[in-house]
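Format notes (please read before filing issues)

Several people have asked whether sequences and structure tokens are stored in separate files. They are not. Every record keeps both together, in the order shown below: the sequence lines, then the token lines. Line labels are part of the format and must not be stripped during preprocessing.
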Amino acid sequence: KENSKKPVYSSKKKNKRDKKGSKGGKYHTVKRGETLSTISRKTGTSVSQLCKLNRLRPSSVLRVGQRVRYK
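Then the structure lines:
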């Protein structure tokens, strides 16, 4: 007997990661000297909304290279 294996096809679609991030939001990468306030002005998102989206406090210290979600 010839042992031939048939390919298995899945009906599930593979999740392709969005370039914007895994949850499909928009992100800003923190640069030197930036605060939540400056990011808020650049992105048009309130500081309180940035805090909610990123589980931060308004007084949080941001690190250079940190990704902050704004939408």
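For reference, the curators noted about this record: Residues 15-21 have pLDDT under 50 and may be disordered. The two ends are 59 Å apart (CA to CA).
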